[in-house]
């Protein structure tokens, strides 16, 4: 018999979409894929060179579980200089991507039955990771009027004697919303009063279009002590396939994460770590250029969305997504179970555009599109979305006569 936990895990919607896209492409269909959260840039050349050099020097043997020393030292410098967070290298654990870092953290601090709070909309894997470690995901219903951001007052309503951890994503996937300092203080103080850990997923931190990004762990020493900061290189340095992330936490938590990782995977690939080291030490200009490109695309895509009737969206201040509200169309669209899933399926089948249904993030009235692609692609996709929405509205009007 297989493990009971498998029955509770929902297959990834985004992976399902990718499979469908590949299937259609194999049939000769020209698909515009706006579903994937992957930079369309390549790893900067200087970072790759550091990785290649490590191979030439035969840096290919077992190393420290928590990551090579020079990389953790650079991560500490980065956190100090850019995030105003002071950590020692024994508080840093480098992992096989941010997903791995999150799972390590959940294994280290939760017990079976503990509740993990997830403000909606939330990234698709948070709830499934929580289930895998036998904890209980508890969605928090946030408000569109506040760009779906959590508040301390709202958080209080969801806390029980089983609450162990809050996962807070900043900037947000899927909305692109960015928390201000006072908003984070409000939330973190509630967690302090109630002895709740904060898992601060800051993987999109570099892709922030405001000048006031604030790390949770920078708010105070007390807040830092209950915070596990998650970050990585997939989004900022286009290292999605290379798989490199890290956690920063207090020594006790880091020691637990290190022990877990040591038994599960030993340590991340050394060449990945050297490439990450190169990205931190030599590729600041490359990363800044990527971010400027994303900001330009954000401005283009939101301007285009403003011209499409009957839709609204959350204005993104970070990441490379737009979360689009289709509430005005929902009642006009003929669907059986899930509006967003069936809307996206029809859009893909009839208009050759792949986007992600909002149900994957816990909200069925929305869809998410990525602008980590060529401008021509997402502008053409929005033209097709405009036609699709117009046809839905027009068809409904005709049917009412």
TrEMBL record:
Every Aminotransferase class I/classII large domain range: 30-385
Cofactor: pyridoxal 5'-phosphate
GO molecular function: transaminase activity
Keyword presence, Endoplasmic reticulum: no
Keyword list, A-Z: Aminotransferase, Pyridoxal phosphate, Transferase
Pfam families cross-referenced by the UniProt entry: Aminotran_1_2
Family: Belongs to the class-I pyridoxal-phosphate-dependent aminotransferase family.
Protein name as catalogued: Pyridoxal phosphate-dependent aminotransferase
């Amino acid at each position: 018999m297989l493990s009971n936990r498998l029955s509770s895990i929902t297959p990834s919607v985004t992976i399902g979409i990718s499979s469908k896209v590949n299937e259609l492409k194999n049939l000769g269909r020209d698909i515009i894929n706006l579903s994937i959260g992957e930079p369309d840039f390549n790893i900067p050349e200087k970072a790759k060179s550091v990785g290649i050099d490590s191979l030439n020097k035969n840096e290919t043997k077992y190393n420290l579980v928590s990551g090579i020393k020079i990389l953790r030292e650079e991560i500490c410098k980065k956190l100090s200089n850019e995030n105003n967070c002071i950590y020692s290298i024994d508080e840093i654990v480098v992992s096989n991507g941010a997903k791995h870092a999150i799972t390590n953290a959940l294994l280290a601090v939760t017990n079976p039955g503990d509740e993990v709070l997830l403000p909606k909309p939330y990234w698709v894997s948070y709830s499934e990771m929580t289930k895998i470690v036998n904890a209980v995901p508890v969605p928090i219903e946030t408000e569109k009027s506040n760009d779906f951001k959590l508040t301390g007052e709202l958080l209080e309503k969801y806390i029980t004697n089983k609450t162990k951890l809050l996962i807070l994503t900043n900037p947000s996937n899927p909305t692109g919303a960015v928390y201000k300092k006072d908003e984070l203080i409000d939330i973190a103080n509630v967690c302090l009063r109630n002895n709740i850990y904060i898992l601060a997923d800051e993987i999109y931190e570099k892709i922030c279009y405001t000048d006031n990004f604030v790390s949770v762990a920078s708010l105070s020493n007390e807040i830092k002590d209950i915070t596990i900061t998650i970050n990585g290189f997939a989004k900022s340095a286009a290292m999605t396939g290379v798989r490199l992330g890290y956690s920063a936490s207090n020594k006790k938590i880091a020691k637990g994460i290190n022990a877990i990782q040591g038994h599960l995977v030993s340590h991340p690939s050394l060449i990945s770590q050297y490439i990450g080291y190169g990205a931190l030490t030599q590729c600041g200009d490359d990363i800044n250029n990527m971010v400027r490109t994303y900001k330009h695309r954000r401005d283009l895509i939101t301007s285009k969305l403003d011209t499409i009737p009957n839709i609204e969206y959350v204005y993104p201040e970070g990441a490379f997504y737009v979360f689009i509200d289709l509430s005005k169309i929902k009642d006009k669209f003929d669907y059986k179970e899930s509006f967003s899933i069936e809307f996206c399926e029809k859009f893909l089948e009839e208009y050759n555009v792949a986007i992600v249904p909002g149900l994957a993030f816990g909200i069925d009235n929305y869809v998410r599109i990525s602008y980590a692609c060529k401008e021509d692609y997402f502008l053409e996709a929005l033209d097709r979305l405009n036609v699709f929405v117009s046809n839905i509205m027009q068809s409904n009007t005709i049917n009412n006569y």
